[in-house]
Write a structure and sequence with these properties.
Distance between the termini: 27 Å
Structural class: alpha+beta
Strand order of the largest sheet: 1-2-3-4
Number of strands: 7
CATH class: Alpha Beta
Helix content: 25-40%
Number of helices: 4
CATH superfamily: Gcn5-related N-acetyltransferase (GNAT)
CATH architecture: 3-Layer(aba) Sandwich
Largest sheet: 4 strands, antiparallel
Number of domains: 1
Length: about 140
């Protein structure tokens, strides 16, 4: 991981990210390039993630790791970077709670309206056959 770089994607990289968001069945609603950060390893796109700032909460969403880089710590590295730049509490609606628990997120049943809206969107439009969990990372800074 010596050649790791995080940055906002270029237009061409954002086009690539959007293709992966679709392929991975991630949240593609109202995507803005500036919401995303990409993880490059020696110039190659490895992972991406998005921080959406709602009026009542910050949400980590549209997190993806290219298949050949999975189970190598790249997802955790991407999440840590996003949490560092968020600088506040962050929510996630997910189907992989074990992964997010390892990143410091805890399950919650009480959450802001924007997160409820996201959970409803996922349940109604992204039928993955696994229950959706809402989790929260509490920023300690």
């Amino acid at each position: 991981m010596s050649g790791i770089i995080f940055r906002v994607p270029t237009d061409a990289e954002f086009t690539e990210v959007k293709k992966y968001v679709e392929a991975f069945w991630l949240d593609n609603e109202n995507m803005l390039k500036e919401q995303f950060r990409i993880l490059l390893d020696d110039g190659k796109l490895v992972a991406f993630g998005r921080l959406r700032k709602n009026s009542d909460a910050i949400e980590l969403c549209s997190l993806g790791v290219l298949e050949e880089y999975r189970h190598k710590g790249m997802g955790s590295t991407m999440v840590k970077h996003l949490l560092d730049i968020a600088g506040a509490d962050v929510y996630v609606v997910c189907v992989i709670p074990g992964f997010f628990n390892k990143q410091g997120f805890v399950p919650v049943t009480d959450f802001p309206a924007s997160i409820q809206k996201k959970r409803d969107l996922c349940v109604n439009h992204y039928h993955v056959g696994i229950p959706y969990d809402v989790m929260k990372y509490t920023n300690k800074a």
